[in-house]
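User: Is it possible to get a 3D structure for a protein together with its bound compound? The compound here is magnesium ion. I've pasted both below.
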Amino acid sequence: MGSITLEKVSKSFGSTSVIPEIDLEINDGEFVVFVGPSGCGKSTLLRMIAGLEDLSGGRIVIDGKDMSNEAPAKRGLSMVFQSYALYPHMSVYQNIAFPLKMDGQEKSAIDKKVKDAAHILNLTNYLDRRPGQLSGGQRQRVAIGRAIVRQPKAFLFDEPLSNLDAALRGNMRLEISDLHHQLKTTMIYVTHDQVEAMTMADKIVVLNAGRIEQVGSPLELYKSPKNVFVAGFIGSPRMNLVEGPAAAKHNAVTLGVRPEHVQISKTAGLWKGTVGVTEHLGSDTFIHVQTENTGKITVRTDGDFATEHGQSVYLTPDPSRLHLFDANGQAI
Ligand SMILES: Nc1ncnc2c1ncn2[C@@H]1O[C@H](COP(=O)(O)OP(=O)(O)OP(=O)(O)O)[C@@H](O)[C@H]1O
Ligand SMILES: [Mg+2]
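Assistant: Yes, that's possible. Here is the predicted structure of the complex:
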């Protein structure tokens, strides 16, 4: 079991309030991602759940039990950090076995758990190596292995992939998702990368300046962002946000439309503009258009749409895919 409830959890460092007050329900077995810009309080919140940081107010309940004042070791959670925090002088085997040894477990029981974890993580052939003889991705897998053997109620990940290159990050993303399917253990995963959030989460928690802006599934956040912040944060390239007459026409202050929901034409359309930079990704092309009346608009189109810098084009947003926001930035 690994349900975690945050009740009116707050955090201040001295007189600076970092997390005003957060309520959140995490169900057993769920993969929850905390996402938000740098400094919004993701790590602080995770560290409070882990017990590495005191609460200034509120309660943290794990499996129905108030754990707010329990020591980290008593909470039954395993944390995996960005800096793998491996012991350099120990082998992979010894690194993974370490928490079990500290726990005073039997040698044979330790051996089975270490080998099972190594098997799950494709580390069987590396058990004799030292961390210095491994790639970044392999080191991260050792750190995860060390977390797995403790059979925690929940895993807490703090930006575990940000030291890896893009290709490896993509692989590890799949591996962690796969691991979650195998273990079915609650996972809380902190990242500032909305792609990681979208691809891995059952439930995304969008944080901004210590507040929850929205909680929902990846597609809920993509389709129905509750406010301008979430609209701009989830989705890549980011949603076009337009103010002025184009929005006022719909009785809104801000009109949002995602790049994939704007049609581009060389002959006719709603917004006239000039092509600026074009980014060819092969599968997609992102065209940045300076429009006459609605500012800069990014369009996502298929890989074969040919444009030239300075060329005149027309853009038409899909009327069924518009997002409208009021003066407070709230979705209408
Ligand atoms: N020990 C501390 N003393 C004072 N302020 C702190 C302390 N730790 C964190 N903060 C502040 O709390 C805020 C939240 O920090 P936190 O590390 O939780 O952000 P984050 O969302 O994890 O950011 P990042 O994406 O950069 O890791 C920041 O403004 C930070 O400066
Ligand atoms: Mg952080």
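The mean pLDDT is 94. The two ends are 39 Å apart (CA to CA).
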